Known about the structure:
By secondary structure, the protein is of the alpha/beta class.
Amino acid sequence: MNLRLDIKTANPVHLQIEQFLRREIQTGKLNPGERLPATDVLAREWRVDQAAIQKAMVCLVADGFIERRRKRGTFVKSRLDKAVIGVLIGRSLADETAHFHRAVLAAIRSEMEGMEDCNWMCRVYDGLNELRNHPDFRRSATYQQLVRDRQHYPFKGIIKLRANLTDVENNPGPDFEANLPVCRLGPALKEDPADVLLDYRCFGRESVEFIARKGLKKIAYLRVVNNTYDLPDDLAGINEAVQALQLPQVEIHAIQHVLTSGAFLEQAAHEKTLELIDRWQSRKDGAEWPDALLVSDDIAMRGAALALARKGIEVPNRLLVATAANESIVHHYGIPVARYEYSITAAARELLRILWNRMTNRPAGDLPVRIGGRFKDVSKPHFLSYNDAHEKQRSSVW
Length: 398
């Protein structure tokens, strides 16, 4: 076997070795099933440290190009099947309002396609949060598919998208190996910390600053509170900006939400906004009217927008409206809405980076990584009448 490699000084040694062996395998110079020379032999031939070779080998194993057989050596994989990254999703992707999960999944796949020499593929398992407490969970079609795939595909890691699946991984049953590197997108839970989070503190602070730049002071905040966790970061960010800008305290209104269907959240936001409008209109002098309405969730914003249209509230002349949202997910609200857009692409990129580092036994860096956003001010919206807006949204509102 002729594996001649001239080590350069410009790039890290382990990276040059990894790229060289990867190229040799892809071009067929190293045949499927062929055994590679021992690490100490390659180290002498290439005049490098054995640690650099080991580091390169770990990366090639993680990416599915070679396999290490105990007491036998290192071999080029006989079949270059793509290594599988399992994506576990709490929500069902069939839910009409699972926009966020579908967008993150698409971004992960896009990032994989753009990675040089990537030998990964996604296998997706969704709706697990709805199944995990069911007595027949292990007999469910989703779980059984997961078990079958683990038996037939070379799994390398797991990405969890807002999925509280600790039981699945810690008590997987005999057919599913749990010792895989895992990376998790928030929110963080007590029993399941997150590696990547959307920065709600930044959203709260920059929303107040954005509204203040419009010359407005009185803010009402429609805040979605989940039944299993409450994230105070948005309130901390709001309070920071309020104190720094010496604004009146923000009027906080909570929507208690059970994560079953986005349609129920939309309905709850619609009803809460109608209630608030009636309260604000009860004073003839308009003393209780806010200058701006801030909403913490773009699905909730759909319900709030429908209520504002229904009541004939002039936006933005009577009320500025803003919401947290995500890039590439655009809802038609029927009213002009300023959007604080989180970068889904950045979240996907960080999830893959952290997972790769764990697959190759490298440090993941400071965690959690917080993904911020920026405001997109919709200055020239497409207006709809209330009837048209209702027709657009009726399929998803209760």
